[in-house]
Amino acid sequence: MTLFSHSPAEEFPLTPEAPADEAALVRDTLGADPRAFEEIVRRHSRRVYNFLHQFTRHHQDAEDLTQQTFVKAYQNLHRFDCSRPLINWLFTIARRSALNHFRAAKSWESVPEDAASEAPSPAHQTESRDGTENLWAHARRILSPREFEVLWLRFAEELSTEETARIAGLTQTHVKVLVYRARQQLMKGDIPL
Amino acid sequence: MNTTPVRPRFYCRLVRLSSAPGRASRHAEGCADCRQYFLASTRLESALRRDAVRFAPPAPAGLERGIMQAIRDAAPAPARSHSRAGWFAGVSVATAAAVALAVILVPHPPRVQPAMAVVKSPAPEVMVQGESFSTRLINAVVPPAATLVAAAPLQNELDSVYSDARSALGFLALNFLPSSSGLIDARSGQIGAKG
User: Is the pLDDT of residue A149 over 90?
Assistant: First the structure.
């Protein structure tokens, strides 16, 4: 059955390994080669920025948090396990930075579950009818923050269940449940795919 | 797109939740509802991937430059990890230092036959020169040890041992014998000192 030929579990191995040249870049950075970390920034900064922008919805906040993420990564690079992909480690740092950033404002994790699933506004309903709506914008409206986060890591960043669980600090079963619930919610809606 | 008009069976829900490709495909072959669900699910995932790329926000101009500037402003050079070789070298140096210290500080035992040390062997001139050179070298490297040996003759060693034994006896008497007996002077360790 060709329906399952593109299963994420098949596309992305459960125990991913970091590219060899990435490990070399990390070693070069630790060996005081300034260009090596510039290359790391060049490769991953946009993904980290995009990841943070999904949660902050604010360009300046996302940019500041991206800078914080890379500064922390640079300062703690000796703790990085070179056998794992660097981007996963950066996502973990970025996620924690964002949580710390919003802890004072109480605007992300502490958003009530029902607040995120309010009925869409008339403008959004019009957008949806026109078929121009971003599916992620719709997902953000109807899913809880945690469901959205897991769904983003799983399908936008194309990480495996194991990697998603590691970054989000959850068990793999919890990730599967959250993805299942998110799918159910999205498939109930009238979104043109 | 309404794929679940009726509540799916428990096993169907289990299969959908687990997302194990083998089990899902086997089950879907005989379950039209699940086949429809997985088809819709695959389309949803494709749409999510597509929209993540299509609606990605443009990165701000100078993002990378800003990151590098923030690193230069905030961070010292990353700490090097402690390599195994460095750790081994450190331990080796510490061990060597400890051995040298022990050689210097531990008193040498008194010589039983000192006469043997002063007997000169009828060695050739080269050997004598070599011996004197090695003696000078040892004295240069560990002068405290040589000084210690010279300043602590046999009598001093014996006096020290005797003094230590007396102190130990006094300590034992002070702690384990009744103080009213008066038979043992705790300080001097001598029997019948109080008279």
Answer: yes
Looking at chain B, which residue has its C-alpha nearest residue A174? B17
Q: Is the dihedral of CA B100, B104, B106, B107 positive or negative?
A: positive
What is the nearest CA distance from A173 to chain B, expressed in angstroms? 9
List the domain range (segments joined by +) for residue A92.
Answer: 17-110
| Domain final residue, candidates A110, A143, A175 | A110
Question: Would you say A30 and B80 are in contact if contact means Cβ atoms under 8 Å apart?
Answer: yes
Which pTM does this prediction carry? Answer: 0.56
Q: Which residue has the higher pLDDT, B104 or A24?
A: A24
Quick one: pLDDT band at residue B76, thresholds 50, 70, 90?
Answer: low
Res. A46: pLDDT tops 90: yes
Same structural domain, A102 and A147 = no
Query: Domain segments of chain B: what residues?
Result: 10-53, 142-195
State whether residue B191 is helix, strand or coil: strand
A-B C-beta contacts closer than 8 Å? 137
Contacts of A71 in chain B (CB under 8 A): 67, 70-71, 74-75
CB contact under 8 A, A71 and B80: no
Say which range, A155-159, B43-47, B127-131, B161-165, has the weakest mean pLDDT. Answer: B127-131
The answer to whether residues B49 and A158 touch, using CB atoms and an 8 Å cutoff, is yes
Complex confidence, ipTM: 0.72
Q: Are residues A131 and A172 both part of a single domain?
A: yes
- Which residue from A minimizes the CA distance to B55? A134
User: Euclidean distance between the first and final Cα of chain B, in Å?
Assistant: 112
**Mean of per-residue pLDDT scores for chain A:** 78
Distance between B15 CA and the closest CA of chain A, angstroms:
11
CA–CA dist A9, B39 (Å, integer) = 16
The reply to whether A152 touches chain B by the CB within 8 Å rule is yes
